Each structure stands twice: as structure tokens, then as C-alpha cells.
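Suppose a colleague, Dr. K., hands you the sequence of a protein chain of 252 amino acids and asks what its three-dimensional shape might be. Before reaching for any lab equipment, you can write down a predicted structure in C-alpha cell form. Begin with the sequence itself:
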Amino acid sequence: MAVFITGASSGLGAALAKQYALQGHTLGLVARRRDRLHELAAILPGRHYLYVVDVQDRDELHAAASNFIEQVGEVDVVIACAGISAGTLTEQTDDFGVFKAIFETNVMATVSTFEPFVQQMIKRQSGTLVGIASVAGVRGLPGAGAYSASKSAVTTYCESLRLELKPHNVGVVTIAPGYIRTEMTAKNPYQMPFLMEAEVFAAKALTAIQQNKTYVVIPWQMGVVGKLMRLLPNWLYDRLAVNAPRKPRQTG
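The predicted structure, expressed as C-alpha cells, is then:
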């Protein structure tokens, strides 16, 4: 089986790459950081294809996807795992660039990642596309307007795509992580309930992908939290969340 993964040099992407490689699959791994990507590849069993690409560059991302297709033929699973996060405040006009970068990486690059594979999957009536959302996208969190909105957009986009591709027997799986121990969450200056190791997350994610789950929250406890958040009326949610701890903004 051939699997294409973006954001593969660290965090969830690297953990997923390790799980798939251990199962004997051939991987196309995309990341910006050349050194980290090659360090990962050096410890993976099997032969894999590496692409040093910034996922915001649609042309380069498409070129990487096309090359992987040429090398392996049919691609079975595509995981748009690249993502960034930072605190943002609308009144801080310097944060506009951060808003843009988060949306370009988390949302538009998900579209760009899927684009080169969709026609092939439709033609052969098989394949799975995987979008990485977040529990943070269930409702807007203070100080995280860009990140919450981007992950909400990923969820909604993947739902639309799922309906479009269902008649063609192409699966679309949306995975919403809670708190997973990665470089990204290491920057959070607050307690993270139900914190899960990345390797444990990856194993559970692979099972969800293999079972073609339409939407899954990992860990499941955060799924319960997410459902409760959706049910809260605005007045109560506002009262509970207005003073929630915030992710640091980018400075300098």
C-alpha cells in the first residue's frame, strides 16, 4: 500500500509515518525541514520517497504528489497532516500575517494535498483521503481565532468532500485530535486534559482510517468534551470559556 503524508518531519505526521512504515507500506513524506525529514527516513523500515516542500507552495506540493504517483502507481491513503498553531488577536494588526499563514497551512494546503489524487481515486473507485481537524475547531476559543476557525473549516470541508466522493467509493476520514504530546502542544502554558502520546494517537488513527470512520476524536474522552461543548447555549459557553487559558501569540 502507498501512503502520502504531509507534515511528516515531526509530531503527528512523523508518528503516523512510523506506524505505516512498520506495517510495511511505501510512503511519500512531505515536510519543510530537510534535516528532520531525513532523520525520520533513516529510522523507518523500507524504502520511502522524501519531498522537501512547504505545503503553502501549491505547485511544489502538486509536483511532489505527481512524482510519488509516478514512482508507486496507485496511492491508497493521503493524509493532510501539516498544520501550525499560534495565538492570534484581531486587535493586534500584526497578527494578520499569522492568520493568513494558519489558514494557508491548515486549510488551503489540505485542499492542495488532496487535489492531485482525487481523479485517480475516482477513476479506480477506491482510496482514502484523511484530513486532520481538532477539538479546538468545535467552538471558537478565545485568543485562538485563526486556529479554531481553520480547524472548523477543515472539518466542514472534509464533510463536503466526503459527500462528493461517496458515490465513487472514495473515503474521506476526518480525525480531530485532542491534546497530543508534540512540539506544538509543548508550547501550551496550561494544563492539557487527557494528554496522549503521539505514538498512541497514531495507532488509533490508523485503525480509524482502516475502518473508514467518517469522523473520530482521539482520545475519545475529548470527543465527549466536544459533544458537550456543541450542546451548550451561547450564554453558558461564553460564561465558561471567556477566561479560558490562551495559546501564546507569535512575537518578533
